[in-house]
């Protein structure tokens, strides 16, 4: 009997052991396989080592393929759930090296094609602005055979099925596109995805291997270096230009009336309600003012809680704009989705954003260092937010506020800026050898105006000299624009050539021959101490004077019209001033702009006034990078207008430089007395109409003698302002003269004494 018990016990133990080994052996390989799959999807590089991936942002929400709770299944059917998983996770492993065809970009570079709009398809104004921005950019091509990137004409911005802007049957429409190719090399823009009550990131169609430029995207679904996180913006967001930031001056110390503010909706239940429901805990009605209202939606009264009436009453007492402009920090909690309109509003108002949206991939996170312009908080640590922002030193607050203004104006002030930034990010991925550095993206004037094709070295850009502690080279190249034949040895161009060549800072003189007559013989040009290079302009158009010629060896360019009258002393002094302001235009002939309220348009004037906003390039010095920017950044339509009119090229250059620097040009020593060789009648006519001339025109074909010349410049002002989206020109009343200029002291004590004799 005892033996039977022992055998029975041994048999039972053996059976248990076999069962454990059986089930354990089935589970262990699956676990290992899943881990390898996850590592590959996070890494994104086939055959590369399996590095550990740390997200850096909290991820409190479970992936949709793991949501098996009762609450979730009540709201969504199995079929809908499969669609969600397919829509969100299909292409999850995509990276640039696996889901992008670089060969399409080799021949024609980075070109973007927009599908033609289909008849009968509705399109929101916001999406129309996006497509218009692409079509007006330097990347656009109308030929799909030249394209590197493709953008749908089907409106994908609002994928909330309850929205009137929702486009139905998008799955079928996209699949029928002959260039779709499972989304490869396609870019899809989206602001809203999912719908009540769960607000998933589902787009409602299979976007395959397409890249997403998406607002409110979570770190779990964001594919690094493939997708682009964009900000949530409203339908009233400016299409181009946009208003500048509201920080007009730096107050020291940089404190405002309020420390921290918020005003917005309170969600009683559902996703996004936790943080906003708890804001009353830190609201003190003094310097921390966090206001919410339940008064939204049709049946809000049916669901209101005991605190709603009190919150609504407090909410109505404060003006949101007044709070926004008088607070140091602005709370940006998540709403139903991760993004919020409050984010861009805070940036523009120089109110440092305090982000409470766990798992949100910040806009343009690939290029922007958000720790220099925002405070990234944790929703679970809401009660610590007031003490945290109070502990930030005033020096850091000032720096944060200044950076909000830079980022707003550089990347977020308009739909055009948001779209161009998105395209430039993808451009840098495609052409990695010409990618911008982090410093270019995160410092003035920003990545959109720092074209890496020009140079990858920061020291080659005029606006980075101060940061790097370097100075421009103490030499310049003069470019004289010649449009009339050389018929006499007494012509002003020859006198100008001799005077410029005598400058101690001049290393070379380039004569751009845009005259219809053949080039003069070499012996017709006077002998000079520096080389004189005569270039025959192939196109004979005005914009050719701003081409980035390889023959320009210096940072500084002295741009001159053929009939300008300047002495060597004037040239030397202007160049000395430019060395202190290498990012600006420095010169002599000044002009100004004004707003004509009667005609409701911009006006152009050459009258002598106490201020100016332009320095004409007929006698001005600037950095040679602006030649490259003029040719490569500005659209062909603007340059074509200049060439068609043979006019306004100097105005367009001033627009460009002021748009880049946000600063006015610099006028040097006033000189009202110029030697003029034009007919007395012509001079008197134009002097009466426009004020005393500061430039000299000697040819019978002079542009100044053309009665349409001034009207054309008025028209150019408005067309340029329309393209830039706003008026970039900045007024100034500063004029720089030599030390002791016009002072009653001995002329021998003055360095630039010859200027006073002119």
TrEMBL record:
Residues 107-392 form the Exostosin GT47 domain. Keywords: Disulfide bond, Endoplasmic reticulum, Glycoprotein, Glycosyltransferase, Manganese, Membrane, Metal-binding, Signal-anchor, Transferase, Transmembrane, Transmembrane helix. The chain crosses the membrane at residues 7-25. It catalyses: 3-O-{[(1->4)-beta-D-GlcA-(1->4)-alpha-D-GlcNAc](n)-(1->4)-beta-D-GlcA-(1->3)-beta-D-Gal-(1->3)-beta-D-Gal-(1->4)-beta-D-Xyl}-L-seryl-[protein] + UDP-N-acetyl-alpha-D-glucosamine = 3-O-{alpha-D-GlcNAc-[(1->4)-beta-D-GlcA-(1->4)-alpha-D-GlcNAc](n)-(1->4)-beta-D-GlcA-(1->3)-beta-D-Gal-(1->3)-beta-D-Gal-(1->4)-beta-D-Xyl}-L-seryl-[protein] + UDP + H(+); 3-O-{alpha-D-GlcNAc-[(1->4)-beta-D-GlcA-(1->4)-alpha-D-GlcNAc](n)-(1->4)-beta-D-GlcA-(1->3)-beta-D-Gal-(1->3)-beta-D-Gal-(1->4)-beta-D-Xyl}-L-seryl-[protein] + UDP-alpha-D-glucuronate = 3-O-{[(1->4)-beta-D-GlcA-(1->4)-alpha-D-GlcNAc](n+1)-(1->4)-beta-D-GlcA-(1->3)-beta-D-Gal-(1->3)-beta-D-Gal-(1->4)-beta-D-Xyl}-L-seryl-[protein] + UDP + H(+). Residues 33-54 are annotated as: Disordered. Its main location: endoplasmic reticulum. Pathway: Protein modification; protein glycosylation. It is a single-pass type II membrane protein. Glycosyltransferase required for the biosynthesis of heparan-sulfate. This is Exostosin glycosyltransferase 1. It comes from Oncorhynchus kisutch. The lineage of its organism: Eukaryota, Metazoa, Chordata, Craniata, Vertebrata.
